[in-house]
Write a structure and sequence with these properties.
single chain, mainly alpha, about 0% strand, rod-shaped, coiled coil, membrane, transmembrane, transmembrane helix
């Protein structure tokens, strides 16, 4: 009996040890799964925060695009208005350019006329150097005087 009782106790000990190990294993497994769940929840929060941040960035980007598009439209409108004004002012500018060219030509013509008159006056006046050269050329014999046969050549050339 004692042996049966000892075997029962031993069986109960074995069952208790087995249950204790099983419960400890289940608790460890639950703890492990809970840690995994916490880790996944944390990753989910970070992912959601990243998604929210990206959404805010996209909204800001869309706002900036709208703003730049509006500025671009305003600039195009202003450009068209300015082109219209330029087209209105072009005939006036062309007229002023013609007047300026005429005025510049008149001033240039006057200065050239004055320079030409000065040159004519200087040409009419004899300079001492020219008078000296003319006088010396009269005194010294010319090439035709030195070479009489050239005179006949010159006359024949003039006749032809």
């Amino acid at each position: 009996m004692q042996s049966e009782e000892g075997e029962r106790r031993c069986g109960w000990c074995f069952i208790l040890c087995f249950l204790l190990i099983l419960i400890t294993t289940i608790i460890g497994y639950i703890h492990f799964k809970r840690e995994q769940m916490n880790k996944m929840a944390s990753e989910l929060e970070f992912s959601e925060a990243a998604v929210r941040e990206a959404a805010v960035g996209v909204n800001n980007y869309a706002f900036v695009i709208e703003k730049v598009q509006k500025e671009l439209d305003d600039a195009e409108t202003e450009l068209k208005e300015l082109q219209g004004e330029v087209e209105k002012l072009n005939p006036e500018k062309d007229q002023k350019d013609k007047e300026l060219q005429a005025w510049a030509f008149a001033g240039e013509k006057a200065s050239w006329t004055e320079a030409l008159n000065i040159q004519r006056k200087l040409l009419q006046e004899t300079s001492p150097a020219c008078a000296y050269v003319k006088e010396k050329s009269r005194q010294e014999p010319s090439l035709l005087d030195l070479c009489p046969h050239l005179e006949t050549l010159v006359k024949t050339q003039q006749q032809i």
